[in-house]
Amino acid sequence: MEIPFEVKPRPDTGLWNAKIGIWLFLASEVMLFGGLFSGYLFLRLGSAGDADYFWPQGVLSVGFGFLNTLILILSSVFVVVAWLQLRLRNFEKFRFWMILVVLCAGIFLVNKGFEYSAKFKHYGIKLSDNSIVEGHGIDDTIRYEGIKEVTIDLARFNGQFLENVDGDTPKFREVISIDAEGKSVLGEDPFELSEKKVGEIEERRNNALREKHLSSNEEKKDNDPDFVPIRWLPAMGVKQVSLIADKEFSIQISRKKLRKSFPDSVKFRDQSSLKGTISKLTPGLYLRAVDRIDLRATDSDNPETSTLVWKYLGQESLLQGQADHGSGDADDGEDKDHAAIGYNEDEQKVKDDSHPHDPKKEAETAKKIFLGARDNVLKEVKEKEKEADFGETLNHSVLKWTDEENDEVLKSHAPILVPWEDVKLYSNFTPKWNTYYAIYFTLTGLHGLHVLLGALVLLYFAVFGRKLFDEDPEHMTNRVEVGGLFWHFVDLVWIFLFPILYLM
């Protein structure tokens, strides 16, 4: 069957090739998004009752999502008007309306950018009993002191831990061997550690091992004429080397950048292992302002009162404590300590200058808000003679609550300091945090890509379509119609995305 390339309706379908193509493409897009929507719905409906699978609720701004919905619907109307202007052979008015469509797309993408940014700045901590706190201003800095012994992986060393050393970087001496008393035999000359130096150590040690291996082959061959020499392979070389610093040093680094951390040692992603102790200045993960508490998944028998959240809520980092007491009376030792750990008073203090900051009182208020909101849910369902929703009672914001009995509005931004041993998981609200956000970023990101590509195509018609319009206005009109069909599909996808992501 001959495929006509000119812009004429096919005799068998009465449609242009481009329109047939876009319908086939949209059919494949329906299958793609339909599969993603179905997967989301199955996961959402099956989430209740699983301790590790409670679904986040009320984490997206409905108003923000509704605004984006209106913007896209409005843009679809503008696309139709622009197409009608082409049918009326008025290119200038077409261009005007099409630019409005592109502007709507730009506003939509900017709004999504703000929404994404808010998620990257918002953090959650899952404690060891599965209770969850969410909020802003996280500090996951971990500091190790008294480091003297370092073990590096020769093949992977990238010098990352050197970049995190407080003060002057120490020099090191190589551990040559261990004597009969178990003491390290060190190389004579201290050296500055670098990737180049590590390469030299690896080459020197491997050459020595290779020579030893070859000598062993020769010796065995002399003793046994039938002996088959064993070939030297790079895998036989040295893998790690231990170093001793000429002085004790400290490091500080974000815990998420480490491979593993222990009370007496720390391992970097390049397999470098350092022996030291965690500083008392960094006893755990610090969240500056808690705005939600979720106890639905807790292992506690009485989560309303005995969960670990209540144990640690209201505790501040020692850095914050020193900030409150060390501005005027701090001695020289404290000032030096602040400088050593990169302390910044403006960033660390958690109070408005016009209102005193009392973390313990804020913690009590946060608990009262949480329990008060829970009691409100229980009271409401009791009045309606219904069974209380477990999720509704144990998942609440703690920022604001109206106590109707005392006629007062309670507000709280309580901080929390969770010891490292009780931190099960922490992350900003990215796909790493939970299944919901993995799906949220997948669906909205894929949709945003469609919006961007569609807007670029429509912008091309508006900016560079004049020549084609002058030569063949019917052809131009059909092209815009095909682009408009794609744009309507993009808007339709969002109409489904909005309720399932924002309202369910």
In terms of topology, how is this protein built?
Layout: H1 17-45, H2 62-87, H3 91-121, E1 123-127, E2 132-139, E3 141-153, H4 160-163, E4 172-178, E5 184-186, H5 195-223, E6 240-254, E7 258-261, E8 265-268, E9 273-275, E10 277-278, E11 284-294, H6 303-306, H7 308-312, H8 318-329, H9 332-340, H10 345-348, H11 359-383, H12 390-393, E12 395-397, E13 400-403, E14 408-411, E15 416-419, E16 423-428, H13 435-464, H14 466-471, H15 473-503
Antiparallel strand pairs: 1-2, 1-16, 2-11, 3-6, 3-9, 3-10, 4-5, 4-6, 7-8, 8-9, 11-12, 11-15, 13-14
Helix pairs in contact: 1-15, 2-3, 2-15, 3-13, 13-15
Please give the alpha-carbon distance between the first and last residues.
49 Å
Rg (C-alpha, Å): 32 Å
- Spans of at least 5 consecutive residues with low confidence: 1-6, 321-354
- Helix content class: 40-55%
Q: What count of structural domains?
A: 3
Average pLDDT, rounded to a whole number, is 80
Number of distinct beta strands:
16
CATH class label of the largest domain: Mainly Alpha
Task: Quickly count the helices.
Answer: 15
Structural class: alpha+beta
